[in-house]
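seq as requested:
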Amino acid sequence: MRVGAEPLLAYALTTDPDPIRVGAPATLRLVARGGMAPAYCRRISLGIPTGTGAGALTADPASIVTPPVQGGGHQDQGGGWTIARSTPSGSAVFTATPNAARGWLAGVTPLTLELGAVAVNAALGGTVLTVTEETSADGTNWVARTAELGVPKFPADFAFRYFAPSAIHVANGSCVRLTWQGSPAVYTMRWGLRGECDVSAVKEWDSPPLHDTTTFRLAATLPGGTAERVLTTTVTVFRPHLRVRDLAARRHVRMIGADQRLDPPRSGPALRLRAETDGILVGHVRAKAGAAPATIRVGTAEYAQIFTSDNRDTSRVPAETPFHVPIRRGALVEIGASGGADDDFGLTWLPMGTGRLAPAD
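struct tokens:
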């Protein structure tokens, strides 16, 4: 097993209360789900720094309660997951493992690990939790990957909430007034690519004129401390400015026209089509589980590509192979496929403007 690389799973950490307060109990909830694509997983570990300092979360890891893991009950997802704890020097590690040999996690099949009754120590500051996953994209090449999640610790009476704009939809060129409630702290407003200003002395702030949809990020920090609490809000702009180069239009401009569904031939000669405009050919191929691989071929004068779906391994969840192929106006496109009646093929033409993939013969 290799160690390193970016995590395959996506993580979201929430706390109760939010933010957590020093000297008071707290609950942590870690939600893990498939990231850019589903992934196989054999373990997820959450490491918590222990001690009495600002960089530690708790000095009493033995008091932490671990309710049952939520999710992952289906056999493909691991057949249920259990949590075990260990306490190496300076940390407490909580490791969730599936009852089956592995679990298959997608974006819609999350796991939730909860740590309750965490006795937060009395030192203000920010601590960093370490998530370690043992994952594989294909169920064979296993890699230990890590991610870090920051958790700020604020005073017991600290409050920062209700960050909102005066309007969530505005016309191009309009301003909004942003308001919030918070305890004394250093407040920094950030927006757009480079906008930033100190708003510590106020509890409301007028934005500059907005010309496109803008996300505002308000951060609260304590003087001399490392803890940071961030709230965000987004304002949508009707008819925003465009940032383009060399754009000329006399009348209406349509970037993507009406889609055209196509049926690739599974036998016989290839489908020959002529592109009436620039566009993108998108599709997928998914072979039946346990059956021979299925393929689809797309060729032009510039290139030819073959896309294959292989689901002969019935121990894995059947997967489809998606693809997209850019096509130039006037190009001759040849499309062919091979597979059985139970294989699934999808093919759609997305023209840039108006234009079909018309028969070439």
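The chain is about 0% helix and 50% strand.
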